[in-house]
Each structure stands twice: as structure tokens, then as C-alpha cells.
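Residues determine shape. Next comes a sample protein:
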Amino acid sequence: MDKNTVRKVMTFKSGQFAFSANYDRVGLTPLIIEARVLRQAVEDLPVLPAVASSLEEETIRRSIFSTAALEGNPLNEEQVAEVLDQKHEHAQREQAENEISNLKVAYLACRELKISDEEFRISENLIKSIHKTITHGLEHPTNTPGVYREHSVKVGNREHGGVYTPPKILPDIEKLMGEFISWINYESLLKKEPLLRAALAHFHFAAIHPFADGNGRTARLLESVILRADGVRYVPAMLSNYYYNHMDEYYWAFSRSERNKENDRTPFVEFVLQSFIASLREIQGKLTTVIRQLAMRDYIFFLRAKKEITQRQADLLNLLIEHPRQLSLLNLSTDSILKPLYRQVTGRTARRDLDRLKEKGLLLENNKLYRLNLNLLDHT
């Protein structure tokens, strides 16, 4: 075993700290393979630039909400979106709003980070820069943006595996951060699957907990940067969503890995792998839906050109692509989106439209409710 698989460091006041790349390689192999295959499948999907840009913005917005909410930010997703849409800073912003604004700047900076080296190396300057950005201007009694703490802190709670006391004094933190940078950039770690390296970086940075505030947000952004450096799109920003929606599992995975006497990081690495796979599946579903919508629009144009459907029927289908919904016969004359098409159409004609589109397989019907059949072209 490589001596850097587990590197033990003795601190001045906090005892021994272990940097460990020890995890169940055999047991996690199916998840690693699944993540690799899914990533390739997503990367092979054709994506229009406008769709890619919109998806990127959506994932960053949701991630900012989730990573802030994990640390107790009280704003809901709609309120977060309002803050992110503001073009200029406001002097009267509340602390919670400033947290969101800072995260926006940090995420955009990380997205634009220029990475020229194929083997991306983390630096203390990068970590301090991320932390400085996310805590800029925030009121905190002991936190200084970009500066390591000089006092002891406690993290966690009994409901999520107990309270953990990270390294207690500045000399220990400085020593461990130096060792962390050396270890995570060591040749054997650089050669690991980037997702595994990102998970290990996330865990060990969080375990050192070098700042007075903002450690969780910094850890998740650091993880995101490592994945982006490997060319992973969308998913790096989505992991925080999964962590937020599975908050108990997230904290328990950290606690079980931190308390393991064999320095086995399997619980946390496994959780990150599961997060990555779930996020990939979500992205795959979104992109596949967009591709189906484009194919359906083309097919509608084809059917209209051959006069197999009327212009009104084609317009109805295109509206259902743009505004997905279930509809009934009554909805055609009452729904705000659909009723302009059917304002002067008799009920019999409207019924004939639905029956015709159902006959062509373009609409599916269940208990007199209709929906667009986006899967129609999957096997044609």
C-alpha cells in the first residue's frame, strides 16, 4: 500500500490527524463504474448552446440555495432566485441575502477558473480565495474572510452522529492545511478518479475545519472545482442539491468516516458516489426531455406539411411542448394558455381534435385527461 494512502500527522495540541484514501475499493467498484458510464452517456448527448447555458444557470441557482440552506440560511428557493436576479448590490441587504450574493460571485469565479494543468492541483491560496469570497462582508464575531481561525470550535450535533472537535489552535490548523495540500496533490491522489479525489478533498478539508465560519460552503465549492477541472459539466453544482435533500445521510456519512478507527472513508466516499449518480440521472433526464421536445417539434412540422393534422392541432401540440400539462376537453376553453386557440371552436370540433391526436399517438389519455406523448418517437 502506498504510504500516502494513509498519512498520519501529529499536531501540537490536537493529537494525531489522518489523511486517508482508504475505502472499500471492491465494494464501491459497481458505483464507480456506474458513475463513469453515466457520465459518458450524458456527455454524448447533443446539447444546443442555449440549452446548455440555461441548464448551467439553473444548476448554479439551485446549488447556491442548497449549499446556503445546509448552513442555516433562511431564504427559500424563490427568495434566493430574486437575490440572484438583482444586477446591483444594495446597501440595505440582510445578512442572509449577502450570503447568497457572495455565493453567486464565488460560483461564477470557480466556473471561470482557468485550468491549464491536466492534473489539477489545489492550493491554499485557492482555498483562502474561495472562503474570502463567500464570507466577504458578513457579520461574524470571530471569522475573518480568508484567514484561519485561532480558537477552538465544535461542529455537528447528537442527531447526526455527535459533536466533533476539529483541530483547536492556529499552529495545528496551519500545519494540517500544509499537509492537506501536499497529500491531496500527491501523485497517487492525482491519478485517482477525479470524483474520488473530490470526495476525499471535501471530507478532509471539512475535518480540519480551518475557518471560523463558511467551512461547509468552502468544502463543497472545492469539490466542485476539482470536478470542473476534469471537464464535468452541470453535476458539480448539483451535488449540493442532493446533499441538502439528503441532509441526514450527508452528516451521518461524514460522522461515520470521521469516527472510524481504521481511517476508512467508505461511508463518505460512497455517499458522494451516490450523489454523483443521482445528479447525472437527473441531468440525463432533463437533456433527454429537451431532445424529445426538439424531435417532436420536427415531427409535428412533418405531419402538418403532409396535412395529416390541422394547423390548430399542430399549435396545440407545440403549446403542450412549451407548457407541459394535463388537459381535459373543458381545459381547451378555460386554460389561459390554450383557450386562445379554442375561443371560437365548438365542443364537438375540440373533441375531434383530441380524438385525432390520440389516434395518431401524439396524445395519451387516461380518465379523460390528456397529455403529450413525448416518447412517441423513441422506437420509430
Remarks:
- The beta strands are 6-10, 16-20, 155-157, 162-164, 363-366, 369-372.
- Residues 143 and 212 are 5 Å apart (CA to CA).
- The two ends are 53 Å apart (CA to CA).
